[in-house]
Amino acid sequence: MRFVIVTGMSGAGKSTALKMLEDIGFFCVDNLPTALTKKFAEICLESKSSINKVALGIDIRTSQEFNEFFSDLEELNQRQLDYDVLFLDSSDDILIKRYKETRRKHPLVEGGRIQDGINKERVILDYVKERAHYIIDTSNLLTRELKAELNKIFIEEKKYSNLFITILSFGFKYGIPSDSDLVFDVRFIPNPYYIKELRPKTGEDKVIQDYVMKWDVSKNFVDKLEDMLQFLIPNYIQEGKNQLVISIGCTGGKHRSVTLANKIYDKLSNSEYSIKKYHRDIKKDK
């Protein structure tokens, strides 16, 4: 039997994840009090029914006694009930935005600041996060991207690194993305903007890609950046980082940065890491 504990920060997408797991054949139970979890797991273990995949949603509303909860699970583990912990996280800014959009109160504060509730919750859930088998940061994930991540883990059973990488192109004239972890300036590469027939096109067009990548300096940049990222990424994972935003910028975010972001994305997309690309300013410089 596959037994999955789905938990994480309130507002990070636990309910959405449970619905997605239900769609792929899991029997899902949400907000079961932690005191009943051991008994529920025992019933699942002893049941002769056809249920062989169970997902149990646990969050801060059910109980704060997570230490005792995991002790119960370890007892069951000795009785051949293997379990995985899926932890959903998100940045404070995104969580606050989601609470304001839905006009919900944080479960740990009554009439207080949402940030205070988030701070308290992070302290309580730190023990759980440290023991999670899978951590998904939903800060920049679309619903379909979260579904793809869950499919990788629970259907395709691919190796999962707990790190989601975003390759982001941008224009310096519009500001450096505030969520950047690494920023690379590619304004040293010849600019197709100054060639009249190339100016209206973007780095998504082959003619621009060919122009940008015909220079040795562009090819060397891609090779050296790939080499550095292959060194950095495993170390970020070891340090516990769950989200990595690699920002590549040129003047307007339309030609050079888009081309090179695409190249880096292609270089990393065959690895075990979860990765997406986003061109923030590609449509701004018309």
Gist of the model:
The protein is α/β, with parallel strands linked by helices and 286 residues long.
Biggest β-sheet: strands ordered side by side in the sheet: 2-3-1-4-5
CATH topology of the largest domain: Rossmann fold
Question: What's the count of strands?
Answer: 9
Rg calculated over all Cα atoms: 22 Å
Known CATH architecture of the largest domain: 3-Layer(aba) Sandwich
The unreliable regions are none
Instruction: Output mean pLDDT.
Output: 87
Structural class: alpha/beta
The CATH homologous superfamily of the largest domain is called P-loop containing nucleotide triphosphate hydrolases
Q: Looking at the chains present, what oligomeric state does this protein adopt?
A: single chain
- How far apart, in Å, are the first and last alpha carbons? 55 Å
Helix content: 40-55%
Overall structural domain count: 2
Helix count from the secondary structure assignment: 9
- Could you give a short account of the major beta sheet? 5 strands, parallel
What is the H/E string? EHEHEHEHHEHEEHHEHE
CATH class of the largest domain: Alpha Beta
* Portion in strands: 15-25%
Please render the helix and strand layout as text.
Layout: E1 2-8, H1 14-23, E2 27-30, H2 34-46, E3 53-57, H3 66-77, E4 83-89, H4 92-102, H5 114-130, E5 134-137, H6 143-154, E6 164-171, E7 182-185, H7 206-213, H8 216-239, E8 243-250, H9 256-268, E9 274-279
Parallel strand pairs: 1-3, 1-4, 2-3, 4-5, 6-8, 6-9, 7-8
Helix pairs in contact: 1-6, 2-3, 8-9
Binding site for ATP: 8-15
Keywords: ATP-binding, GTP-binding, Nucleotide-binding
Pfam families: PapZ_C (PF22740), RapZ-like_N (PF03668)
